[in-house]
Amino acid sequence: MTNTFFKFLKTAFPYIILLISLFYSYNFQPKPTPNPGAMDPDTELQYEFPGSFRYYKSGRVERLDGTEVVPTGTDPTTGVISKDITINQSTGLSVRLYFPSGINSDKKVPIILFIHGGAFIIHTAGSPAYHRYCNLLSSNAKSVVVSVSYRLAPENRIPVAYDDTWESLKWVVLNCRSGSEPWLAKHGDLNRIFLAGDSAGANIAHNIAVRFAEEGIDGCPKLKGVLLLNPYFWGKDPIGNEKTDPGLQPWMEETWSFISGGKYDMNHKFVHPMGSPEVFNKLGCERVMVTVAELDLFVERGKAYAEALKKSGWDGKVVLYETPGENHVYFLTKFDEEKAVKEMEAMVAFINRD
């Protein structure tokens, strides 16, 4: 027994020494001293939209709002039917369609290409507030609504949102003419296509109307109208009765720079069309409706846009609709209150007036 143990020990001894050496080598190596001043780029903020969005120096995106998606189907309140369609498999661009109840099989109805807001960084067509709003819009206006889920910044910075919406508009026109989407092919009226959007979506709607005039789309000679709901426009200098809070302008410029990747300054025509009045002569539509809310940060910009459009020599009709005592896009949350109902009625009259 003793001889066997010593033979084993003699054979294993080199390996024991190696293990002891490795143990001491590992445990007594000098360790790097943590730098208490160094911050983790995955937790260090680079940009924040309070309560809605955070962007970290590592490139990590955290969306605190606008991520919930509600399913399609038949809305129990309005009877409107909705469905999702991916129109570009490579980019994932999709739209959510809404079809109102009570439409005869051969009846042609207006088409509203709706573009949601959210500062270009949050929300989709499936967000609860926008899904509800498009159900109401389709029901009240007796229109096919096509709500665009454009790609968001910062993963896809401006002008991607414009390009996605432009592609969606071309898809709508194609399907009205000869496509496979039955709601558009059977019921879509090519002569009554409207663009509509709130906040950032209104910004996109304006820029798409300009692009339509510049490039055109085969089979669609003109857009019927554009509805800009509490539009997101700004500029380097305050106008009208705008607040002169010293912290506001830098934050607005930081936000625009963030969503555009620093490509366009605060006076660029994308965000400050009033500084480029030539764009108003390029609106490819017959009429424009601008809605503003008294307490909205952007109220002066919406009024200035409507006034500049009227004075530009553009030959279309401009309607400015003002709501007292309300804040930015109030109609999304107060959709069933009197002021929101009246604004919806004004929009429906604008869409269906001829």
Topology:
Elements: H1 2-27, E1 45-49, E2 53-56, E3 61-63, E4 81-88, E5 93-99, E6 109-115, H2 128-141, E7 144-149, H3 160-177, H4 182-187, E8 188-198, H5 200-215, E9 223-229, H6 248-260, E10 285-293, H7 299-311, E11 317-323, H8 338-352
Parallel strand pairs: 6-7, 6-8, 8-9, 9-10, 10-11
Antiparallel strand pairs: 1-2, 2-3, 4-5, 5-7
Helix pairs in contact: 3-5
Organism: Rhynchospora pubera
Protein name: Alpha/beta-Hydrolases superfamily protein
Active site: 199
- What string gives the helices and strands in order? HEEEEEEHEHHEHEHEHEH
| CA-CA gap between termini | 109 Å
Helix content class: 25-40%
Mean pLDDT: 90
Shape: globular
Number of helices: 8
* Coarse structural class: alpha/beta
Task: Report the strand count.
Answer: 11
- Percent range for β-strand residues: 15-25%
Whole-angstrom Rg: 28 Å
Q: Uncertain segments of ≥5 residues (pLDDT<50)? A: 12-29
The biggest beta sheet is recorded as: 8 strands, mixed
